[in-house]
């Protein structure tokens, strides 16, 4: 006996969906419709009939009443939120807030929001970007430095070189590299203090970042921080001029190679203060406090500069320089190197120290008596 097949119901043909329905006046079909932005209505231009109401304005929320605002920037200040940050990844605009007065409500779309939230890399970028902004605020840095530091960290984060490092150390190292590339004078130890991290910890991250990024890191100039140090000590501009010249000639003599830029600046500053007679108080402890360099490190660098003191001052300061007040802490380790460089470069002493001046050096007399 043959089985009876169930009859399938025939579905009516689907009506094709219209894309965009054009709002027209029922009386005047071809008359253009004018949109009233103030009232949110669409009005027929022939008879004035309101053919649509509660229309959402998709234009700009802000209004410009003068040409001054337009000259500043030609951006369209839209109401759709902040512009997309190119330094972040993923969707930056979707946010689902909790239900008011129901903080513990188990809502499905809130669970989906947590699942569809930013990825781990985006959370890391946001965390480090916030720490970079805080660090820049403490150090009074410009927005250009902040943007450069963020771009440096984003480049490193894509390589995965600093995944296991502290976010504070990553932010401090990125800011330090940005300052060096942009020529902004911020000492390394000052950034470490602002980030509340040890120089050793930030140094590890700095070396990883430096090897991971493609752009070269500029070498720091010791003379960049002289203005800040002299301002802290309350000295005159002539001291800065002399210290800058000392660093320039000292670099040619290659007697300070391998030392930190702040140590070089501190040693040049100490020599300039003593030679120009600005040592009202003990200059070595004052310079150590202003530069955050230990007194022993300043002495070791000063020993390399002292034998060549007649070459390290400009000729126009000849009347103000007096080497009798310059202490002698002992011989330096690179004196022979400096002598060879003087012969090679054919340098001439700018200030000749007479026998009477050399004999009047109270520090050398005390050392000879002891």
TrEMBL record:
GO cellular component: nucleus; transcription preinitiation complex
InterPro entries cross-referenced by the UniProt entry: Cyclin-like_dom, Cyclin-like_sf, TFIIB, TFIIB_cyclin, Znf_TFIIB
GO terms of molecular function: RNA polymerase II general transcription initiation factor activity; TBP-class protein binding; zinc ion binding
Annotated ranges, domain TFIIB-type: 21-52
Keywords: Metal-binding, Repeat, Transcription, Transcription regulation, Zinc, Zinc-finger
Annotated protein name in UniProt: General transcription factor TFIIB
Pfam families: TFIIB, Zn_Ribbon_TF
Comp. bias intervals (Low complexity): 1-11
Residue span of region Disordered: 1-21
Family, per entry: Belongs to the TFIIB family.
Keyword Methyltransferase among record annotations: no
One BP term from GO: transcription preinitiation complex assembly
């Amino acid at each position: 006996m043959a089985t009876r097949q169930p009859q399938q119901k025939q579905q009516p043909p689907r009506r094709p969906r219209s894309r965009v329905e054009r709002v027209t006046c029922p009386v005047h079909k071809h008359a253009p419709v004018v949109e009233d932005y103030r009232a949110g209505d669409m009005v027929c231009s022939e008879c004035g009939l309101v053919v649509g109401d509660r229309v959402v304005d998709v234009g700009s929320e802000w209004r410009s009443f003068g040409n001054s605002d337009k000259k500043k920037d030609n951006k369209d200040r839209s109401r759709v939120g902040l512009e997309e940050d190119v330094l972040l990844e993923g969707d930056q605009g979707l946010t689902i807030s909790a239900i008011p007065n129901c903080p513990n409500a188990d809502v499905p779309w809130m669970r989906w929001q947590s699942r569809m939230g930013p990825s781990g890399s985006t959370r890391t970028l946001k965390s480090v970007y916030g720490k970079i902004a805080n660090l820049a605020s403490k150090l009074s840095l410009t927005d250009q430095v902040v943007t450069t530091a963020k771009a440096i960290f984003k480049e490193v984060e894509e390589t995965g070189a600093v995944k296991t490092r502290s976010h504070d150390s990553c932010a401090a190292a990125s800011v330090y590299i940005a300052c060096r590339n942009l020529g902004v004078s911020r000492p390394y130890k000052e950034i470490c203090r602002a980030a509340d991290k040890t120089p050793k910890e930030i140094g590890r991250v700095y070396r990883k970042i430096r090897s991971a990024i493609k752009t070269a890191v500029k070498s720091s100039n010791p003379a960049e921080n002289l203005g800040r140090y002299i301002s802290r000590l309350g000295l005159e501009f002539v001291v800065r001029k002399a210290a800058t010249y000392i660093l320039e000639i000292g670099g040619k003599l290659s007697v300070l190679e391998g030392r930190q830029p702040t140590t070089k600046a501190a040693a040049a500053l100490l020599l300039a203060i003593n030679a120009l007679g600005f040592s009202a108080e003990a200059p070595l402890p004052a310079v150590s406090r202003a530069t955050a360099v230990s007194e022993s490190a300043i002495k070791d660098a000063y020993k390399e500069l002292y034998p060549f003191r007649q070459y390290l001052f400009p000729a126009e300061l000849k009347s103000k320089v007096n080497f009798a007040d310059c202490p002698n802490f002992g011989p330096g380790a690179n004196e022979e190197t400096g002598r060879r460089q003087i012969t090679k470069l054919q340098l001439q002493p700018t200030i000749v120290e007479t026998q009477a001046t050399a004999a009047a050096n109270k520090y050398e007399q005390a050392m000879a008596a002891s």
